[in-house]
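Dear support,

Our group has been running a series of protein-ligand predictions, and this particular one with iron/sulfur cluster is the one our PI (initials K.S.) wants archived with full inputs and outputs. We had some confusion internally about which version of the output was final, so please treat the block below as the authoritative record. The input we submitted was:
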Amino acid sequence: MNMKIDPWSALNIDDYSKLFDEFGILPFDEMVREIENPHKFMNRKIIFGHRSYDLITDAMKHNKPFSVMSGFMPSGKIHLGHKMVMEEIIWHQQQGGDAFVGIADREAHSVRGMSWDKCKDIGINEYIISLIALGFEPDGHIYFQSKSEQVKDLAFELGSKANFSELSAIYGFTGETNVAHMLSAVTQSADILHPQLEEYGGPKPTVIPVGADQDPHIRLTRGLGHKMNMFKIEGREDKNGNKYFSIRSKAAPEEALKELNERIPGKTKLFEGHVDIFNADDFELLLKTVREVELEFGGYAFVPPSSTYHRFMSGLQGGKMSSSVPDSYLSLTEDPKGAAKKVKRAKTGGRMTLEEQKKLGGEPDKCSVYEMFLFHLVDDDEELAQIYTECREGSRVCGNCKALAAERTEKFLKEHQELREVAKDRLDEYGLSI
Ligand code: SF4
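Confirmed final output from the archive:
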């Protein structure tokens, strides 16, 4: 099956396992064991997949530098889906990651036709204020794409490595697609790679927490990162079966290859366009040396970005959440009492009658109220397991269950909105103003 994911359309990905086979996203299950205090989304299989997350677990375990980065298009209300990404960014920041949040105003301007003023207004008043209220620390970086010279310059450079066929294969661009829309695709790649620029400490693993629909950006960026790099390390085998590494480059200056040949310890041989290494037993050291030489000769030495993929909540009425159906989603800025009422009207996995419910049990896996507990309203795993079991056993009644979810929703929104008021006065700590 040929599955195209378009991050600009709210496509419902109903079978996540296809992503493993089709796009090479790896299951997250095994990663969880490597993490000391996993985020609840990790334990609960809400984050279900990743690319190269082993680089991040290694950095967290051994106190090595790493970054976390994600972006938000300022096009509407901040909702629970955005909250998920923000929580993932903040969790990585708490684990020692240098955190970056980009407001994708170039994307909103080119794809949605939003004015720059509107982008700024929504970017700050909806997204950034909630990000700070949720716990983003001022040592992280919050920026607007249109105001970041580093991102814009890098986007231009990346543009020289991306061609139209590649972009249209990933995003389905056609002859009608405007150039700014294409530029916004490479700008997002620049968002993802710029934490590795010299001014932010140079090459390092960077994780991008996203919904599965954003994977095209990740694939494009990983490809562009490779293309920008001066050197490529290949594992090879000679005709006698002896293994060796070959560092290859089409674009590196001759002096850079010579320098590599001199600096790499052990038996090496310099050829035109490549250096072969016959006894490298420390791959990390080899990689480090290659990156150092590349940086000295003006290259980027990007580490291909890692990513995590979370699944989406369904709408409160079942089906998809949609900004055009207010009853299907909750915004972090809406009236807490009104939000509680929405939760009380939500579609449950309950049976037609109380009698049936007691006899057959409910279906929490089909219940949007249970999803609210799972994603947002219950931190304690034991409490969540109890809700699940009681529902399945038929000892839980939907009315009471919805009342609990509504009460917690109202409490969360009330507290969050109070924290937002405090956050408004702290914008200058983040180099921002309204
Ligand atoms: Fe959903 Fe609760 Fe009803 Fe179970 S009892 S179906 S979790 S609302």
